[in-house]
Amino acid sequence: NNTNQSEIVASWWDYGYWIETFASRITLADGATIKDIQIRDMAKAFLGTEKDMNDLCERYNVSLIMLSVAEDVVGGKWGAMAYIAKLNANEYVVENKANKTIALLPKGQNAPIFRMASLVLMDSTLLMDKILPVHRSPNGRVVVYCYVPYWGEKWGQSALGRALRFP
Asked: Which of 24, 71, 152, 159 has a CA 20 to 30 Å removed from the CA of 4?
């Protein structure tokens, strides 16, 4: 209800159908994506740097990025992203199996997936320069971010204003 119909949403491919069906928005990938290049590009962007995520948004005209914190991070789908992107998951986190916690290594601290999830999972949010939060579900399971340069240029300042007012 709070986005333009023509906006493109990046999320892990599992949620593409939901976004297309229930929100009537265009997604970068869904379960029917035949060419896996978008899925691999998303995996690399989520686990790369903010620059990698910015590049993904520019290349595919993405204005919104949705993250299911419960599934993608806590549920461990980020490990599948690492596998698809051919990255070593052990370079991102150290797991403490005794108390069921993880500590972010430097690569994990820089990766957009963990920076976005920090809004829900950590005491302080790991902020990014061009990717800002615009929505957090009441239960904290889902967060939505906007790619500010794209929104600012294509959709006007109202979207940027929403991002900057986000609690």
From this structure: 71
Collapsing DSSP to helix, strand or coil, 82 comes out as helix
Please identify every stretch of the chain with a pLDDT value under 50, giving residue numbers as ranges: 155-160, 164-165, 167
Q: How many CB atoms lie within 10 A of CB 47?
A: 26
55, with CB counted inside 10 A (0-12, 13-18, 19+), is middle
- Is 86 exposed, middle or buried, given 0-12, 13-18 or 19+ CB atoms closer than 10 A? exposed
What is the structure's pLDDT at 33? 64
Q: What are the helix (H) ranges across the chain? A: 16-22, 37-47, 50-60, 77-84, 106-110, 112-121, 148-154, 157-165
Rounded to whole angstroms, how far apart are CA atoms 8 and 1? 14
- How far is the C-alpha of 126 from the C-alpha of 106, rounded, in Å? 12
- Helix/strand/coil percent split, the chain, to 5: 50, 20, 35
Q: What is the CA radius of gyration of the chain?
A: 15
Backbone angles phi, psi at 8, to 5 degrees: -105, 135
C-alpha 28/C-alpha 26 separation (Å) is: 7
The pTM assigned to this predicted structure is 0.86
